[in-house]
Amino acid sequence: MHFAGLDIGSTMTKAVIVDGHGAMMASVIGPTGAEHRHLALAVMDETIKKADLNFEQLDFIVATGYGRINVPFADKQITEITCHSRSVRALFPTARIIIDIGGQDSKGIKLDAQGKVTNFVMNDKCAAGTGRFLEVIAETLGIKLTEMGELSLKAKDFVRISNTCTVFAEHEVTSRLTEGATIPEIVAGLHEAFAGRVVNMVRSLGIEKDVVVTGGGAMNIGLIKAVEEKVGFRVLVPQEPLLTGALGAALMGKDLLARGVTSERKRRLEGVTFFK
Amino acid sequence: MSDDREYYAGVDIGSAFIKAVLINQKQIVSYEILSSRGHYKETARKVLDQVLNKGRVRFDMLSGIVVTGIGAESAPFQARQFSDISCQAAGCRSLFSSARIVIDIGGQFTRAVKLTPQGRVANFLMSEKCATGSGRFLQVIARILRINVEDIGPLSLKSQSPVEFSTNCAVFAESETISRIAEGARMEDILAGVHRALAAKAAVLVKRLGMEQDVVLTGGGGEDSGLVSAVSEALEVDVLVPEQPRLTAALGAATLAKEENDKTH
User: Fold this and answer.
1) Which of A34, A125, A167 is the closest to B131 by Cβ?
2) Where would a tag sit more exposed on chain A, N or C end, judged by fewer CB atoms within 10 A?
3) Which domain holds residue B1?
4) In A56-95, which positions are buried (b, 16+ CB within 10 angstroms) versus exposed (e)?
5) Least confident of A35-49, A249-263, B71-85, B216-230
6) Do A98 and A233 reside in the same domain of the chain?
7) Inter-chain contact B171–A163, Cβ cutoff 8 Å?
8) What is the pLDDT of residue A178?
């Protein structure tokens, strides 16, 4: 048995194939991008090849993420809230809170002791507290998004960033630079502000141990440390934080088939149409 | 005799620009706007010197000075301080005695002030410090469209079908603008869409205060004909705009200096 999960995020498209035991056989991560509308197909195709399978050997395909609608080769669409909690529950049975920091949104999910979703909060209205915040300012500072984490660890202290709005924070950062603040101090300040915003949002759910951080934000060690400062204890991070949505989608497919739900649609391995 | 040789100055130390207005008992004598670039003290001194020079008035001939604005504390001369809300209100009522609502759309936020029939501040509301609620939204979009800020208004007025943004965040609207252009959206429709979004935010503040006429639009937003038209449409009235919309707070500061002096004499 083989199950595929496809997570079309605002920034990245992720695909995972698991076997009948739920073990990961292959995964691929590619940029979503406005001009990459056929990328979902390419990512799926590549994952199938990596797993040394062909399309017909997939027993169930679940699509998730903001681009999950209109994936012609998926058997079912499931929200990312459900998919994230499914895989996090499998990876960390003690998880009670999931903080997912994506490219254009951030979410908090609360799980009960059985791992069921009891509540969630989400910000997709404002760039602050999403990956875009760091992306915009990394560009201003002339550094790579992926090096921000390590850079911020070099700072002994952080520069307080008082603006929530990304546009004004960008301006604030340039002023602090001209006043002599170092880039590591500024990046540490950005992480502090970012973590404050995300943790405050999640606080409304009631923060409980264990907290798991997923999404691109979890790949930033400086941001993880800042989140830990705010919640007051260590958080858990999956080995592949970008893949929790896709892995959860694949596992949901396995669950559905086990419950007797079978694919009714005729699947076509073809391009994804967005926004239709 | 109270003659026109009594002079009063108002200085508005804003985050980006410092404005000064010199008045006498009867009218505005001179005014100046300078970009501060973070040098509040030097620029404030320079702006005041320039209005005094233009009016051929010496510093010691001033009967009163009032400073206002975010940087009022850093004024390099002895002066009374008034809040920018009070100054905005005073400036608007000296220009338009019928003003009941003042909308100030600046580079950092939008503010709405409600005035009593006597022109005193009854209440006010401010937007969050969010680029989408301020002129900064226009700057962000103008940069992508590669057009000058001055050209925004006239272009926007040509729009037949303004774009409706799916987001309320300037950062996300920036990427949406790029996709819309790729899809063939017209520049004027994008700008008119930004104007509509800004006007809607201002209208929310006004409705919460309780709409009354007349409405005056000040700040940098008053210099943008597309925004003036969008605000008029959103409120379903013709808004009044001062000749120099960025100077109303400085003018108000000068008139308050005069009122203070009149009270004590």
Assistant:
1) A167
2) C
3) 1-96+246-265
4) eebbbbbbbbbbbebbbbbbbebbbbbbbbbbbbbbbeeb
5) A35-49
6) yes
7) no
8) 84
Answer yes or no: do A225 and A247 share one domain: no
Same domain as B135, residue B222: yes
The answer on B221 and B119 residing in a single domain is yes
* Complex ipTM: 0.79
Judgement on whether residues A128 and A191 belong to the same structural domain of the protein: yes
Higher pLDDT, B238 or B181: B238
Q: A125 contacts in B (CB within 8 Å)?
A: 167-169
Q: B167 and chain A: CB distance < 8 Å anywhere?
A: yes
- Asked whether residue A125 falls in the same domain as residue A144, the answer is yes
Query: What total number of domains does chain B contain?
Result: 2
Residues B144 and B152: their CA atoms lie apart, in Å, by 12
> Domain of A248: which CATH number?
3.30.420.40
Q: Is residue A140 part of a domain?
A: yes
E strand or H helix that includes residue A203: helix A183-203
Pairing outcome for strands A97-101 and B17-23: unpaired
Length of chain B: 265
Interchain proximity A126–B38, CB inside 8 Å: no
Which H or E run includes A122? strand A117-123
Domain containing A182: what range?
A: 94-237
Task: Give me the pLDDT at residue B86, please.
Answer: 95
**Shared-domain flag, residues A43 and A66:** yes
B59 and B112: one domain? no
Task: Say whether pLDDT at A265 is over 90.
Answer: no
> Would you call A50 exposed, middle or buried from its count of C-beta atoms within 10 A (0-12, 13-18, 19+)?
middle
Q: Are B4 and B106 in the same domain?
A: no
Residues A77, A32 share a domain: yes
* CATH code assigned at B159: 3.30.420.40
> Which of A124, A168, A176 is the best mutation test for B, with the most CBs of B within 10 A?
A168
